[in-house]
Amino acid sequence: SEMCIRDRNNLNLDNWDLEAEIVDRNGLTATRAVVTTYEEHHHRRWKDIQQILQSAEIPERVKIRALAIFEALAKSEGAVHGIPFDEVHFHEVGALDALIDIVGSCAALESLAVTEVHVGPIAMGIGTITAAHGVLPNPPPAVIHLLKDFLTVGVDLNVELTTPTGAAIISALAISSGPMPSMTITGSGYGAGTKNFPERSNTTQVIIGIATSDKSSSTNSAEILTELTTNIDDVTSEYLAHAMTKLKDAGALDVWLTPIIMKKSRLANTLSILAKTSDSYALTNILFELTGTLGIRKSE
Who's near 219: CB < 8 A, 6+ residues apart? Predict the structure, then answer.
């Protein structure tokens, strides 16, 4: 909501408005968020976006999620155009309205206390689109890069049904793609796109629920978790113990140390973290900050 962004989630940015209106999309009542900006379009670098979000007076999880989404965007644009991701200049996605879209989405998840995001098949149109780089195939290359390993569905419409911003939100936040997970439904809503198609409701369905165990219906159920590991040879055991406590407090499911011998017979430790995938980005940042390590391995 507008209050959620403007009052609780201060971006320290002026020249924008956010309103909501109830609309009809092929007989389905839905809410359309209308973002209005009052500045000329200009490019922003990934570092500029980072600075805006880091200094914003917003809840920590909103900040972490928004940073993860923009990092996914930067990496996809960098990969598509063959440049380092930290040198990417955002065009449409770097404009003020995209900042509101992305932080607004993360703020909405926070206001609804959503801890996990799952998505169904993602709609892809056909034809071409016009972007900052000229005419591109639809879906655009950045979207394809972002949605690797996600389930998609082709729709016979010459319309950009999934944008890079939308794909980045999914790529950074969704922990599964496919059928709806087992859960007790507690609420639902429909977000409306701007266009109105003659034979299709241009809406996104959101279902909120409390996860239930699959063990009653399957003997093979498994939860996908993320393991983060790093080798450390220049930090004392006392400080590593402190770091382990901090990581547990930050949401790690388990943290442990394994003594190892590195090159030139140096004694060292491997610090390992087991975490939910949705928490791995925040824990990675904490691990870098606490230990000063140069690199972290990530596996599922």
Answer: none
